[in-house]
Specification:
Blueprint (H helix, E strand, L loop, with lengths): L12 E4 L9 H17 L2 E6 L9 H13 L6 E5 L4 H13 L3 E4 L3 H13 L28 E4 L6 E6 L3 E6 L7 E3 L7 H11 L4 E5 L6 H10 L6 E5 L2 E2 L15 H6 L4 H9 L13 H7 L10 E2 L2 H14 L2 H14 L12 H8 L6 H12 L7 H7 L5 H12 L5 H15 L3 H13 L7 H8 L1 H9 L2
Parallel strand pairs: 1-2, 2-3, 9-10, 11-12
Antiparallel strand pairs: 4-5, 5-8, 6-7
Helix pairs in contact: 1-9, 5-6, 8-10, 11-12, 11-13, 12-13, 15-16, 15-19, 16-18, 17-18
GO molecular function, one term: zinc ion binding
Catalytic activity: tRNA(Glu) + L-glutamate + ATP = L-glutamyl-tRNA(Glu) + AMP + diphosphate
Organism: Simplicispira metamorpha
Length: about 475
């Protein structure tokens, strides 16, 4: 039985509402990560809404990158995607309600008149704003309605008093109503505008928490007033600071930001991306590396940062490398296998059990799965191509007899790490060489570079036939 003085906890419903007018980048997806994490942390719902009312700039390709990027990062919504263009009838219905209640009025001021008004205000050093010419007031006579002009619909913003909210990031924010003019909420053709559609969506979808970028702070007081005109209480707001690029500018496509899906193609792990993005504006003590499960367990709105976070690709690569190292060899092999098939390796060639062991040997040296696939390719490809510099430095005429002797000795060798190491030692003794003098050229000839983990482990994984053939053809 519930104590009647005790309010049951609210069922959290958050949303991500991108505009598909450019490819979604890390700054945008960070704005999706927090509402997703808050819904997961509280057992709530995460809703995806596509704000596609900008018909000229919205594209299906941009929608696809949003959906693909979120799916790759494991941030699938519980509901949606909902498309605003498919909800026009609903918006018009609510507009009619507002108009009937006297909260909306037609305005016939032309663009030319608005521009002239703005210029006059700016010349007088006033803030440019609509002056309420067509706002109906008791005892006021409105101008005659011009013929053949389709009006816009404006929202009758309250006069006097303040709009205030306790922002979960920025603290208390208060805006005087007199600072806000009467917002256009429907265009001359009747299509509703962004600030109005957002409020109707948030009401219909029962959104409890709006977690979004701080470029929306100026919209919030207007949206709160529309909520109240519709008899609804606004949600809790949290306005996140901007993500800056490495040059300290706002991250944007124009400033060279990459689509989120490009990071997938470059071999970054979704859990590493979530870890890195989480730290761009939120913290849990000094924890730098954490799992998705830990992030969800720890996440709340009280530890969101107030200052802009700066993207750092070197840090992202370091975080990715830590996650890569921590993955099981079998799980890594499952990620590397399709990359090798894409590069022309026959799928059946990968069934020989070597791939998890190759991943184990090289994962500490790699910061992306693409770098790991580069190493694995050496073991499955038919040839290796050392650089001219490495070949000239290590594969000299002086070392050729030792390479031939090693090839001959390995013919008789049982193919396991210990036996290969023992054979190597015998050849070194017979040839009067030290380990690096022979190991470096052997690596260059068999795997294409002098810098690898221990040579016996590498040779075992390359395989007896390939090793002997590559040594012979040095």
């Amino acid at each position: 039985m519930t104590d009647k003085n005790h309010t049951p906890p609210q069922h959290v419903r958050t949303r991500f509402a991108p505009s598909p007018t450019g490819f979604i980048h890390l700054g945008n997806i960070r704005s999706a990560l927090y509402p997703w994490a808050f819904a997961r942390a509280t057992g709530g719902d995460f809703i995806l809404r596509i704000e596609d009312t900008d018909l000229e700039r919205s594209t299906q390709a941009a929608v696809d990158v949003i959906l693909e990027g979120m799916h790759w990062l494991g941030m699938d919504p519980d509901e949606g995607p909902f498309y605003q263009m498919q909800r026009m009838d609903r918006y018009k219905e609510v507009l009619a309600q507002l108009q009937a209640a006297g909260h909306v009025y037609p305005c016939y001021m032309s663009v030319v008149e608005l521009d002239a008004l703005r210029e006059k205000q700016m010349a007088a050093k006033e803030k440019p704003r609509y002056d309420g010419t067509w706002r109906p007031e008791s005892g006021k006579t409105l101008p005659p309605v011009p013929e053949g002009v389709q009006p816009v619909l404006r929202f009758k913003n309250p006069q006097g008093g303040v709009v205030a909210w306790d922002d979960k990031v920025k603290g208390r924010i208060e805006i005087r109503n007199d600072e806000l003019d009467d917002l256009v909420i429907a265009r001359p053709d009747g299509t509703p505008t962004y600030n109005f559609c957002v409020v109707v969506d948030d009401i219909d979808m029962a959104i409890t928490h709006v977690i979004r970028g701080d470029d929306h702070v100026n919209n919030t007081p207007r949206q709160i007033n529309i909520f109240r005109a519709l008899g609804k209480e606004p949600p809790v707001y949290a306005h996140l600071p901007t993500v800056l690029n490495e040059q300290g500018e706002k991250m944007s496509k124009r400033n060279g930001a990459k689509p989120v899906t490009q990071y997938r193609d470059e071999g970054f792990l979704p859990d590493a991306m979530v870890n890195y993005l989480a730290r761009l504006g939120w913290s849990h003590g000094d924890d730098e590396i954490f799992s998705r499960a830990q992030f969800i367990e720890w996440f709340n709105l009280d530890h969101l940062g107030r200052s802009a976070a700066q993207f750092d690709e070197a840090k992202l690569r370091w975080v990715n490398a830590q996650h890569l190292k921590a993955m099981s060899d079998d799980a890594l092999a499952a990620l590397i296998s399709p990359q090798l098939v894409q590069r022309g390796i026959a799928p059946e060639a990968l069934d020989d059990g070597r791939l998890p062991r190759i991943c184990a040997l090289f994962k500490d040296r790699c910061d992306t799965t693409v770098a790991l696939a580069d190493w694995a390719l050496v073991f499955y490809g038919s040839t290796v191509e050392p650089s001219a510099e490495e070949r000239a430095q290590h594969v000299t005429a002086a070392i050729a007899p030792a390479l031939d002797a090693l090839a001959a000795a390995l013919e008789e060798c049982v193919w396991d790490k210990a036996s290969i190491a023992a054979t190597f030692k015998q050849v070194l003794t017979a040839q009067g060489l030290k380990m690096p003098q022979l190991a470096m050229p052997v690596r260059v000839v068999t795997v294409g570079t002098a810098h690898t983990p221990s040579v016996d482990a590498v040779l075992e994984l390359v395989g007896k036939e390939k090793v002997i053939e590559r040594l012979r053809n040095h």
